[in-house]
Amino acid sequence: MLGLFDLDNTLIDRRAMFARWAGGMLQRLGVEDPDGLGWLIEVDGNGYGDKARWMPLAAERFGVTEAAIEADRSAHWIASIEVNPAVGPALQRLVDAGWSLGMVTNGPPTQWDKIDATGLAGYFDAVVVSGLVGVAKPEAGIFELAAELCGHPLEGWMVGDHPHYDIEGARAVGLSGAWLPGPQKWPDGLPAPALTVDSIEGFVRAVLG
Predict the structure, then answer these.
(1) Residue 155: exposed, middle, or buried by beta-carbon count in 10 A (0-12, 13-18, 19+)?
(2) Cα(58)–Cα(46) distance, integer angstroms
(3) In the chain, at which end, N or C, are there fewer CB atoms within 10 A of the end residue's CB?
(4) From the centroid of its chain, how far is CA 100?
(5) pTM of full prediction above 0.85
(6) What is the pLDDT of residues 159-196, one digit of tens each?
(7) First vs last Cα of the chain: how many Å apart?
């Protein structure tokens, strides 16, 4: 069986990662703004916010330079990752059951910095980063490439948090979608996912028992 997994807000909790970094950044830069962290989380939009747009707004709001924010991010962003300790053993159960696993993530080549920091790459037969291959979810090509690199037909599951990029993209190529909703709701009018789970280990329990 093929199992493809998204990275952000699936294998790792990017929302929590951003909150840890942003809260620390405000402290390190001496910013006193009781609503600042909530505002940053909102404009980040779970990673889908345009950093080029919100960074200058943040600099103006907090009375610091964009360079100072970017320098803090460069120094502390990766260190803000925390991996749920249940994820690795859950992936190992799939490996032991004979599954072929692939990680499929949209983002720049620097996604590899996060991937390396998670320590999870060893569970996967293939890791596909959109910024390195020139195709991104929900395009069929990125799922096809991941399956090819895993040496497995496009038959199995895609696990992710984004209804369109992960679940609908996977459905279009014949994969079943397992959705980790986080704080968002399933969009009206979109066919329901094959499975809704609250965690990676929840997905593994659902498919292996």
Answers:
(1) exposed
(2) 16
(3) C
(4) 19
(5) yes
(6) 999 999 999 999 999 999 999 997 788 999 999 999 99
(7) 15
